[in-house]
């Protein structure tokens, strides 16, 4: 079996771990053709393994006693997240599947009219954000838990021959509605263009969203002296200093002539 065929067989179930350092795992010197370099070895991980070890990489370690490089897996330790950091508000496209969504927005919009001392549009947006966050947590609920509860309910209904068929069919419709909401949620998070709305795969979208989350993680920053820092407080100061220097100028432009025109 060729390497291309093998890759096509494995890729739906496995992922090649990210490689750092030299891209080659084998080399040999030929008297007339010089040294040949080839990447013969790779490290694979399953879909279930990758989220448990985010940031795992493979390094090709040169060996003095072999023409094959050793593959070393690196599992970096992640810094604990600060608990006081609240995630920003995001609109969830899956809310549109729920008929209660329009009522929540309408009530929040009308309530914003009666808040004083601020621009109306800001009142509207703030009120909608707060009401949607509360509704999502209290009433809309966790998608996975909703699906699990309905599936458990369906199993109970199917075991009772005394119940009417319409109860079973209604529960199945509810499950399909939540499954559609779950796929919409992961589709929104994945930002992936290979699969359209008509060809959904929740596991695939979950993996793509997890990969994107890993790419967005800032593990450290260099200050203006080239020193590497990983603690949150120092990185915040580096960002503030950088943007403060951008918006400062040592040679302000005299705009009086422009202002006096006309």
From TrEMBL:
Keywords, alphabetical: Signal
Q: Which domain of life is it from?
A: Eukaryota
**Which PANTHER family has this protein been placed in?**
BNAC02G09200D PROTEIN, DNASE I-LIKE SUPERFAMILY PROTEIN
Q: Which SUPFAM superfamilies match?
A: DNase I-like
What is the species listed in this Swiss-Prot or TrEMBL entry?
Lithocarpus litseifolius
**Which protein is depicted?**
Uncharacterized protein
Q: What is the lineage of its organism?
A: Eukaryota, Viridiplantae, Streptophyta, Embryophyta, Tracheophyta
Q: Which residues form the signal peptide?
A: 1-18
Q: Which InterPro entries match?
A: Endo/exonu/phosph_ase_sf (IPR036691)
């Amino acid at each position: 079996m060729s390497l291309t065929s093998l890759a096509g067989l494995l890729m739906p179930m496995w992922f090649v771990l990210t490689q750092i350092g030299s891209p080659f795992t084998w080399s040999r010197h030929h008297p007339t053709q010089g040294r040949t370099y080839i990447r013969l070895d790779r490290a694979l991980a399953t879909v279930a393994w990758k989220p448990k070890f985010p940031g795992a990489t493979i390094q090709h370690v040169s060996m003095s006693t072999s023409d094959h490089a050793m593959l070393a897996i690196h599992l970096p330790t992640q810094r604990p997240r600060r608990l006081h950091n609240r995630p920003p508000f995001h609109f969830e496209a899956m809310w549109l599947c729920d008929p209660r969504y329009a009522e929540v927005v309408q009530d929040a919009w009308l309530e914003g009219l009666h808040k004083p001392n601020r621009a109306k549009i800001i009142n509207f947006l703030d009120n909608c954000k707060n009401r949607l966050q509360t509704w999502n947590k209290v009433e809309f609920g966790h998608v996975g838990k909703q699906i699990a509860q309905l599936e458990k309910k369906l199993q109970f209904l199917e075991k009772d021959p005394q119940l009417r068929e319409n109860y079973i069919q209604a529960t199945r419709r509810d499950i399909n509605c939540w499954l559609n909401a779950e796929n919409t949620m992961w589709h929104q998070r994945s930002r992936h263009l290979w699969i359209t709305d008509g060809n959904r795969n929740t596991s695939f979208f979950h993996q793509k969203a997890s990969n994107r989350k890993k790419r967005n993680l800032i593990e450290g920053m260099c200050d203006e002296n080239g020193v590497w820092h990983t603690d949150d407080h120092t990185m915040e100061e580096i960002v503030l200093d950088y943007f403060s220097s951008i918006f400062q100028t040592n040679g302000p432009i005299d705009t009086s002539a422009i202002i006096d025109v006309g």
